Amino acid sequence: MKRILFLCPDNSLLSPMAQALARLYAQEDTLTYSAGLNAAEALDPRLASMLGELGLAPRIQAPQSLAEHADLRFDCCVWLGPQPPPSTGLNLDVQWILPDPSGLPDEAYRHFRDRLAERVRNLMNLFETELD
């Protein structure tokens, strides 16, 4: 089994969205995870509906911190956030500096989701090819 981790500041929006999208494109032998450097109180209120428009759902019910995955080893770690990540002790294979779309109108939020889906699809294609 291959494991990929999507990491963002608080696991409320960016990494759960990327994880849900990755599951759409991942092969059966790939497990996807999401975490935040710290866990937010709750998921972004529009995350479920925006993923639902694509027939997807968040894989987590509540934000999780990186510490909750400390016992796992990942084949690929992806940072998503508005700023470069602080030192985490992880080898971050991919860093996507992205704005937080939570305050955007619905159309801009959808546009962000769709652009992230393209990035995730390309990453998963590369990830599956490199590790096969």
UniProtKB/TrEMBL annotation:
Record InterPro entries: Ptyr_pPase (IPR023485), Ptyr_pPase_sf (IPR036196)
Keyword flag Thylakoid: no
Organism of this sequence: Aquimonas voraii
Residues in Phosphotyrosine protein phosphatase I domain copies: 2-126
Keywords of the record: Arsenical resistance
GO biological process: response to arsenic-containing substance
Annotated protein name in UniProt: Protein-tyrosine-phosphatase
SUPFAM superfamilies reported for this sequence: Phosphotyrosine protein phosphatases I
